[in-house]
Amino acid sequence: MVLIIGGAYQGKLDFAKEAFSVAQEDVYSCSGPEIDFSRRCIDRIEEFAYACVQRGTEPKAYFEAHKEQWRDSILICQDISCGVVPMDTDQREWRQAVGRLCQYLAGEAGRVSRIFCGLEQRLK
Which of the two ends of the chain, N or C, has the fewest CB atoms closer than 10 A to its terminal CB? Predict the structure, then answer.
């Protein structure tokens, strides 16, 4: 599995498409508390995590339970850990949940890349 992280609008998806020959139809963009793992590339993992927090579920537990389904995937997550700590409880919990999830995924990944200004920084 490959984990790609980076800030908003830094070119994470474009990097994945170019580096791993991913076609647009191979990309699933998360928007709720479920993920279609049949696609090769799963984008916007942070949106999935937000939906989980709103439902009171732990996104890391979901990934642990579905490990066999994403073992060969390219996972893309926006780094939401920078900036001012939110005052809203749900926003803080979301930030923490994404951090826990990314730590878990980075540990499971064969490759972890951070994208900044469209450039890759290989972390693992």
Answer: C
DSSP three-state, residue 67: helix
Where would I find the H helices in 34-82? Answer: 45-55, 59-65, 67-70
pLDDT of residue 39: 95
Q: Using only C-alpha atoms, what is the Rg of the chain? A: 14
Amino acid at 102: C
- Strands of 2-6's sheet in order across: 27-29, 41-43, 74-78, 2-6, 111-116, 119-122
In which residue ranges of the chain is pLDDT below 50?
none
Strands (E) across 1-124 are located at: 2-6, 27-29, 41-43, 74-78, 111-116, 119-122
